[in-house]
Structure formats: structure tokens, C-alpha cells
């Protein structure tokens, strides 16, 4: 019997009520025997080792990770949630650790003595979970430090980090590694950096280790995360997309809003000692993913955007933009700019432009001709076409609204 289950059982025998303990993702950590007070949700969570469905959604909607004081939760009457629960949030100085639940029947109340027992056991559980969390965090941080050493400008540091990772059993069977950079992880105003980092670390651990074990590792900073996935030289492209999808799914369980903001850039496959190159490629791809509002971007799929990213690293100064662009092109309607952009992307093929935009060909021709008339630019002139395609690719940097 592990420490958490032992504490839950000891408390349950004293207060004669069922006790269960979940982590911050509402996954079961331990539970006691019950006393005829188990409702269907209790039995289901024991079988599945987690709380799922509408009850889970309602618990997170009530701000569960931010609870700091015991509270009574009324029976929801959904998914077998038939009895009240007294919840005791478990926290460390770094953030939430989980919650201890005590089932209450009808109008049952905990006496003052029982409340004191529950609070005392909750504090013991916090100490156990905090030690476990710290041990695990120490191991994670050791690997993270080595990953960041792989990004060093010094060849000697990169080689040393690669050897240390191999000694720890990481990437032993990998002929190559591919970097993924995750962005869009800035904390909300009311959301502490440590809490956001903890959510992302848990999601990455489950997403990466469940599939790649020691052939995958990750590191988390205040504004992005870095994932390294090993391969044997023939890794299918879909596997890298799968990493992103797994991370999004795992993050969504704890923080749906954060999961919706995540963007992933995938770098190139390189030897372990050259992971820094793949990392830089992935950072470029992540910026492209952000600009295009795509969840995952593989650098190799966007050569033009990649060239623009590495050529134009700063924002465009609007005051220096040619008047032709500011006063002619940018006064066009969003529909006009979208039509011209699609037309150029399709190498001037009106039929394909019509199909993609779901417009009649006559409408496409009309918009193109009107654009030429109002701007003075010719869509048959190579320099004008290059000017327009280049501008449409970089205009976001000047703060103009998106036209997609």
C-alpha cells in the first residue's frame, strides 16, 4: 500500500466515510475502502483511475486548481455524481498538488473533530506529494539542463551534454533527433508562471514518455518549450505531428484555453550533437505557425516563409513602406487582397483560385481587374507580382489585420 492510500485508509477508518485523493489532473492517486456511500461516479473513478466527462468539466470550471480552503461540493446529479463531497485542496508552495475528497451522505456534516482530522491528514498528504514532486522535478530539471547545454555555442559543451544524455539512457537507439518548439504558452494575468509551467511539464511528460520513453526529452522555459524526439533515420513526418497532437490533448485536460493557443514548429533531423541546428529551425517554424495560425508547421513545408523569417527578423516600420503599398494596396478590401493573394499562390491560375475561394470565375476576374485598375499594378508584370506576393507575406509584421 503506497503512502497516499495508507493515509486515506487511516482517515476513512477514523471518520467512517469514503476518502479518495486525485492529482491536479483528477487522476486517482489513492483511495480508501467505502462504507456504503459509494455513488456510481466513485465506482467509475476507481475503475478508470480518473474523473471524466461533465463532472470533470464542472470541477475545472469551478476553479479546482486554485482552491485553497476546504469546501463542500453539492451533488451534481450527472454522470453518477449523487452525493456531496467535502474537498480538501492539497498544495505546495509551488502550486496545486491535488485534492482529497470525503463523501458525505444527504445532509451529513463533518464534526469539528473530524474536520481537524481531515485537515491534519491533508497536511501529511501534501508533504508526501511535495517530496514526490520534488524528486521527479529534480530528475526533469537535470535532463532539461542537458538539453539546453545541447544548444550551447561551444562545441565542447554540446558534446559533453550529448554524452551525459546517453549515459542517462536517452537517445541510445536514435540515429538522429528532431526538435520541436512550442510557443503560445505565456501565462494569463491571473495565472502564475510556475502553474503554467507545471501544466505544460505534466502534459509533455505524458505525451512524450508514453510514446517515446527515453527516445524523447523536453525542457520548459517561461515563454516556450523545447522537445527533442529521437529517430532511426526513417522517422515518418506524421510522428512529429503526433507529438504536437498529444501535447495539445494533454494540456486541454487541465487548461483548454492554453491548449488552443499552442503552436508547434518542427525542425530538421540531425545528429544529437547538432540538436542546436534543429532547434533554430524549429523556432523559425514556430514563428511561421503563429503567423499562419496553424497548430503545427514543418519547416521544410514553408521554404518561402522560412526565407522571409531569416531575412526579416524585426518588425516592419510602417513609415518606411512605399506609398504605393500603403495608399494603393492597403486601401483595398479584405476580399480583394485575399483574392489577389490566392491568385498569386496558385501561379495565376484563375480556375484553382475560384475553387479554393468558392467563387465564380467571373467574380475572380472582376476582382482582379478592379484591383489592377485601382492600384495601377499589373498582375501580368513579374516585378509587380513579386512586390505583391512579398508584401502579402510580410504585412503582418507591420501590424496590418490578417486577411485569412
Largest sheet: 5 strands, antiparallel
Return the structural class. alpha+beta
**Overall shape:** elongated
| H-E string | HEEHHEEEHHEHEEHHEHEHHHHHH
The number of distinct helices, counting runs of at least 4 residues, comes to: 15
Which runs of at least 5 residues are low in confidence (pLDDT < 50)? none
Description of the structure:
- It is a single chain.
- This protein is of the alpha+beta class and 404 residues long.
- Helix content is 51%, strand content 15%.
- It contains 15 helices and 10 strands.
- The protein has a 5-stranded antiparallel sheet. Strands 7-8-6-9-10 form a 5-stranded mixed sheet.
- Strand 1 and strand 2 (28-31) form a beta hairpin.
- Helix 6 crosses helix 7 (237-254) and helix 9 packs across helix 10.
- It is elongated.
Amino acid at each position: 500500500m503506497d503512502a497516499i492510500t495508507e493515509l486515506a485508509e487511516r482517515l476513512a477508518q477514523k471518520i467512517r466515510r469514503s476518502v479518495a485523493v486525485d492529482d491536479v489532473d483528477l487522476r486517482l492517486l489513492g483511495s480508501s475502502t467505502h462504507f456504503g456511500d459509494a455513488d456510481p461516479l466513485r465506482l467509475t473513478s476507481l475503475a478508470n483511475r480518473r474523473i471524466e466527462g461533465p463532472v470533470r468539466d464542472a470541477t475545472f470550471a469551478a476553479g479546482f486548481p486554485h482552491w485553497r480552503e476546504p469546501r463542500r461540493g453539492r451533488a451534481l446529479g450527472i454522470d453518477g455524481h449523487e452525493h456531496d463531497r467535502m474537498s480538501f485542496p492539497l498544495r505546495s508552495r509551488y502550486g496545486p498538488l491535488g485534492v482529497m475528497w470525503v463523501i458525505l451522505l444527504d445532509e451529513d456534516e463533518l464534526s469539528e473533530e473530524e474536520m481537524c482530522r481531515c485537515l491534519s491528514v491533508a497536511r501529511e498528504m501534501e508533504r508526501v506529494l511535495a517530496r514526490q514532486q520534488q524528486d521527479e522535478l529534480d530528475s526533469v530539471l537535470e535532463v532539461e539542463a542537458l538539453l539546453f547545454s545541447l544548444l550551447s555555442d561551444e562545441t565542447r559543451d554540446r558534446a559533453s551534454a550529448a554524452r551525459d544524455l546517453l549515459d542517462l539512457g536517452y537517445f541510445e537507439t536514435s540515429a538522429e533527433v528532431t526538435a520541436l518548439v512550442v510557443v503560445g504558452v505565456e501565462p494569463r494575468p491571473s495565472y502564475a508562471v510556475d502553474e503554467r509551467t507545471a501544466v505544460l511539464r505534466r502534459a509533455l511528460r505524458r505525451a512524450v514518455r508514453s510514446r517515446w520513453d527515453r527516445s524523447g526529452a523536453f525542457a520548459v522555459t517561461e515563454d516556450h518549450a523545447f522537445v527533442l524526439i529521437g529517430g532511426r533515420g526513417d522517422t515518418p513526418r506524421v510522428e512529429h505531428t503526433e507529438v504536437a497532437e498529444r501535447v495539445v490533448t494533454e494540456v486541454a485536460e487541465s487548461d483548454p484555453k492554453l491548449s488552443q493557443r499552442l503552436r508547434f514548429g518542427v525542425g530538421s533531423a540531425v545528429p544529437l550533437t547538432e540538436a542546436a541546428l534543429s532547434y533554430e529551425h524549429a523556432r523559425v517554424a514556430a514563428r511561421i505557425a503563429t503567423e499562419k495560425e496553424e497548430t503545427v508547421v514543418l519547416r521544410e513545408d514553408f521554404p518561402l516563409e522560412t526565407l522571409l523569417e531569416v531575412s526579416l527578423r524585426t518588425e516592419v516600420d510602417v513609415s518606411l513602406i512605399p506609398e504605393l503599398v500603403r495608399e494603393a494596396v492597403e486601401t483595398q478590401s479584405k476580399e480583394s487582397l485575399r483574392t489577389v493573394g490566392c491568385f498569386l499562390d496558385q501561379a495565376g491560375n484563375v480556375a484553382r483560385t475560384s475553387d479554393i475561394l468558392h467563387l465564380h470565375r467571373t467574380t475572380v476576374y472582376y476582382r482582379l481587374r478592379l484591383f489592377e485598375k485601382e492600384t495601377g499594378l499589373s498582375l501580368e508584370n513579374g516585378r509587380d507580382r513579386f512586390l505583391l506576393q512579398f508584401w502579402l507575406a510580410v504585412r503582418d509584421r507591420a501590424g496590418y489585420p490578417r486577411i485569412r
